[in-house]
Write a structure and sequence with these properties.
The protein is built from eleven helices and eight strands. By secondary structure, the chain is of the alpha/beta class. The protein folds into two domains: about 200 residues, Spore Coat Polysaccharide Biosynthesis Protein SpsA, Chain A (Alpha-Beta Complex); about 120 residues, no CATH class. Strands 3-2-1-4-6-5-7-8 form an eight-stranded mixed sheet, with helices on both faces. The C terminus is likely disordered.
């Protein structure tokens, strides 16, 4: 097993962790990636190397995701066949928990060390994880206890895939979770201690800039859908007033809004590599299914006495979640030629 620790301007907690790992599991190899910390922090990395860690890295800061990918490449090249456990350098992860996550790694799946968020937890960490957990479940249908944990284990066979997932900063780890199911990886959860030293003051997470990066995959789809919804909403009212037939108005409005949504999702949201014909076919099959659901729900609600505009506002959130999941997995997802063997996602608490 390899322990990979991306580090940007680390404190002495990194050295404490390396000593604990050396005492608990002297055979475990540690790779520390200096993410452009600069000369002021050189003594920490020198001490890490003196304790036996492979210290590699960049001359300038490139982000946590880039550091992790560089570490994965190093592990694959120098320790082929070894599973990798990623941990943070700020003292949040204990040697005991790192080794527990490593023992839980199995072929075909990743392992998350999940926190209970009990005791004194910084408000931004508690609230941020809660929001991301809710958004992740709404977008994927997968319930995870801790989407922002930095303690994760990966089997050796995953290293190539890990380096192919986009993202160079904090958004990278969420991208891994968003793409895991489509790539065929299972996810296991292992409980770990919730540790925050000095209110997590050593964290380099920037609440606004890095939150925007983390939520970008979800926000991009939401923005695309909101634009399409606005087009659909206005067009429905206009067509219904002109035609006087609900079914015809729904079909015409959805045809216009779906074209806008398809272009935005294919080019911007999912950056799909599937052939245009394949994505068009799948997309409009989905549109047809959503259209039938849209009409059926609107007709039922208006029959109950709701105004058309109110019914529309109630129906769209339900169809939004269903549409995202199907588009991400089946319409714009990676072609099977670049995916690993498909397996269902299994979330197990251990």
């Amino acid at each position: 097993m390899i322990v990979l620790i991306p580090a940007y301007e680390p404190e002495r907690t990194l050295i404490d962790l390396l000593r604990d790992l050396g005492e608990s599991a002297p055979d475990v190899r540690v790779v520390v990636v200096d993410d452009g910390s600069g000369p002021l922090h050189a003594p920490v990395f020198s001490d890490a190397a003196a304790l036996g860690a492979d210290v590699i890295g960049f001359g300038v800061n490139r982000g946590k995701g880039a550091a992790m990918k560089y570490g994965f490449a190093h592990a694959a090249a120098h320790y082929p066949g070894q599973d990798v456990v990623c941990a943070d350098s700020d003292g949040q992860h204990t040697a005991v928990d790192i080794l527990a996550v490593g023992r839980a790694v199995r072929p075909g799946g990743m392992v998350l060390g999940v926190r209970a968020f009990s005791g004194p937890v910084p408000a931004r960490s508690r609230i941020g994880n809660g929001i991301t957990r809710w958004a992740f479940r709404a977008a994927t249908g997968v319930a995870l206890s801790d989407t922002q944990t930095g303690l994760r284990g990966y089997p050796a066979a995953a290293l190539g895939w890990l380096r192919s997932v986009p993202g160079d900063r904090f958004e990278y780890e969420l991208n891994l979770l968003l793409r895991a199911r489509d790539a065929g990886w299972t996810i296991e959860e292992v409980p770990i201690a919730t540790v925050y030293l000095h209110g997590n003051s050593s964290s380099h997470f920037r609440p606004l800039a890095d939150s925007a990066r983390i939520y970008l995959p979800l926000l991009a789809f939401s923005a695309s859908s909101l634009v399409a919804f606005a087009v659909d909403f206005v067009a429905l009212l206009v067509f219904n007033a002109l035609i006087g037939n609900l079914l015809a108005a729904v079909v015409a409005a959805r045809g216009l809004s779906s074209a806008v949504n398809f272009v935005a999702n294919r080019r911007i949201v999912f950056s799909s590599r599937r052939p245009l014909r394949a994505t068009l076919t799948r997309y409009y099959l989905l549109v047809a299914m959503l259209l039938m659901a849209n009409y059926g729900l609107l007709a039922a609600l208006t029959d109950l006495g709701l105004a058309l505009a109110v019914a529309k506002l109630l129906v769209e959130p339900v169809l939004f979640v269903a549409s995202y999941q199907v588009q991400r997995s089946l319409v714009f997802g990676e072609p099977s030629a670049v995916r690993t063997a498909a397996k269902p996602v299994a979330i197990r608490s251990g």
